[in-house]
Amino acid sequence: MYQMIALYLTIFFEFLLALAFAFVYGESKRTSEYGPIQTKGYKIRKYYFFALVATMGIATILTLDDLPYHSAHAKESATTETKVVEVTGLQYYWEMSEDHFTIGDQVEFIVTAGDVTHGFGLYTEDLELVAQTQAMPGYENSVYYTFEEPGTYQILCLEYCSVGHHVMIKEIVVEPKGGVENGE
Amino acid sequence: MESSIHPLAKKTVIYYLMTTSILLIFMMILGVIMLLNQGEMIQISPEWFYKIMTAHGIGMVGVAALGGTSIMWYFLSKYIKLRPSIFLQNFTLSLIGIILIVIAIFGFNFSDAWTFLYPLPAQSAQFYGVTGPLLFLFGVLILGVGYLIMYAYLAARLIKEYGGLGKSLGWDYIFRGKKGYGPPPAVVATTMVVITNSTAVIAGAIVIIGSIINILIPAISMDPMLAKHLTYAFGHVFCNATIYMAVIAVYEVLSHYTKRPWKSNKAFLIAWNASTLFTLMIYTHHLLMDFAVPTWMLIIGQVFSYANGLPVMVVTAYGALMIVYRSGIKWDFASSLLFLAMFGWVAGAIPAIIDATIVVNHVMHNTKWVPGHFHTYMGMGVIAMILGFMYYFNKKEGSMKHNHFDTFSIALYFTFFTGIVGSFLYAGSMSTPRRWAVHMPEWVLSDQIGAISGIFVVLATVLITVRFFTGLKGVGKTT
Ligand code: HEM
Ligand SMILES: [Cu+2]
Ligand SMILES: [Cu+2]
């Protein structure tokens, strides 16, 4: 979801930017005195400055509230237990204490590394990146994800870790509720 | 007031620019090879891919730094007398560094990326031998030392001429209400770069020396998190400094062409002071996915990355628009490249700022989105400034004139560079990871678009470089 927001916002702002540059280019062949242009330009700049600060302020307020660093979601719904999964990244494979889940599972991945720094990237079946954290030797990072769709997910390595970086893929399976594995 | 540049410094500018342009073409070809491989149009081994990636990364950063340095030195010489031997020593040490790096990568298979994230080089040293990592780390260190010597000299000169680095950053005008204009923009920008980049290089030197010691004596190790902080304090600031050096050409050339003054008024000085501070603070946006870093530090990373967009957007780019507006400016290679470069810088800052948002970074960090934004402000920003300066230099110091051919090359360059960065950003929005030698079928189309765009960018750069070298002949005659 955030990927699409990022893409469209970028296109939107870059379009505005291109318009501004094209406009000034179009006006560049005419000449008039710089003094009045500066006076007017500085006035416009004030509004422009406040508009930018306001945009950034709003973005900050909207986004700082839902940081991925703690299990905000897990605490909200105290009825379900959080499954704890230990993950270790090694050249060039992932060790996980569990790799089969059921829909609705809230999982805390406790991620570390055994040799060099790797990156734990959780991808859906459609290859959309939905969560990540760094896997650094000597550190444990907890990243939370609740599985809502069944399918084969993949862990891809997201920190360059030498020549096998791109083969560091692990599949994990998420079954529908009452699926085959549960036998109910 | 204006003193002319020392003949040896002028010659050294030529050395810098020749090296920059030739290296640029080679590094771009490496970039195209990577895309051809990811796009499954050619096949190279992963070992080769990652060697090429390492060479392209460090090589391009070197290109931007050399080009930026030559711009800074050239224009700063107009305002303060500089000793050309320092300029030449930086060039020499850079060359030695580059040679060691090339030997490390292609002779001893070093492929741990230009960010050499600890403990990766030490790990590789165990498997593939210590020579590669050591040569690479020493190469970068020597390059850094060259810069450190140059910055120390520039700091000494600025202090001598202006009475302190605070003064050459215009503190008298900001805090003490002094009226009029501050030091020339070239001086203000140089001060900013001296302060931020010396800090960066020292941070880099510490982590490099730490890595070297760890390779030689594995019992002595570093904390990987501390090492990462130092690495990005170095890498982030060093890359940013290339823009802040190169932008001096925009100030100088656009004001020259429009015959309008670009002076350091209060807003200008405040902007540059803010950049100085923010540039040093925001490298933590590279660690947003290191959850072990204290959250307040990461929030600073987000908030000040936003704020760091303001100086360029509100003062520098806006200033470029204002100075050009109804100025009757003559558009030639230099003025149009520098104008477009300001567009490129801001266009790259936009996706960068969006990615510095923690919740966005959570699903876009280390995807192709990242090369997407930095190729925009490096390729269409810094490099465009450097190419613009190359033309300007030949025109000012020689007898080069713009022709239709140049209009074509510039249009070609910008059109297809937009193709490259567009394909990267699109790939990033599809979650394509960065630094993957082999791509999944879903990602291949964007790589092919990038590769084809890249071929045309190489072509445009070759045309621009050929014109630069032919133009240099005129410079020889007038010296
Ligand atoms: C023809 C133009 C260019 C092409 C085709 C190109 C292509 C590429 C590709 C394919 C990558 C690796 C992407 C990945 O992670 O999968 C890359 C990385 C990079 N490029 Fe370029 N590039 C070009 C120009 C530039 C320029 C002008 C600069 C800077 C001045 C630059 C700096 C870098 C850096 C710093 C990296 C990061 C390397 C790493 O991840 O370790 N590139 N480029
Ligand atoms: Cu990896
Ligand atoms: Cu950065």
UniProtKB/TrEMBL annotation, chain A:
GO annotations of cellular component type: cell envelope; membrane
Membrane-crossing segments per the record: 6-26, 47-64
Domain Cytochrome oxidase subunit II copper A binding: 80-184
Coiled coil, from the record: none
InterPro entries, sorted: CcO_II-like_C, Copper_CuA, Cupredoxin, NosZ/Cyto_c_oxidase_sub2
Catalytic reaction list: 4 Fe(II)-[cytochrome c] + O2 + 8 H(+)(in) = 4 Fe(III)-[cytochrome c] + 2 H2O + 4 H(+)(out)
A molecular function GO annotation: cytochrome-c oxidase activity
Alphabetical list of SUPFAM superfamilies matching this protein: Cupredoxins (SSF49503)
Compartments, record wording: Cell envelope
Keyword terms, alphabetized: Copper, Membrane, Metal-binding, Transmembrane, Transmembrane helix
Function: Subunits I and II form the functional core of the enzyme complex. Electrons originating in cytochrome c are transferred via heme a and Cu(A) to the binuclear center formed by heme a3 and Cu(B).
Name this protein carries in UniProt: Cytochrome aa3 subunit 2
From TrEMBL, chain B:
Gene Ontology annotations of biological process type: aerobic respiration
GO cellular component: membrane
Coiled-coil boundaries: none
Domain Cytochrome oxidase subunit I profile per the UniProt entry, residue ranges: 10-479
UniProt keywords, alphabetically: Electron transport, Membrane, Respiratory chain, Transmembrane, Transmembrane helix, Transport
GO MF, any single term: heme binding
Stretches that traverse the bilayer: 12-36, 48-75, 87-110, 130-154, 200-220, 232-254, 266-283, 303-325, 337-354, 374-393, 405-428, 448-469
Pfam families assigned: COX1 (PF00115)
Protein name as catalogued: Cytochrome c oxidase subunit 1
Record organism: Mesobacillus persicus
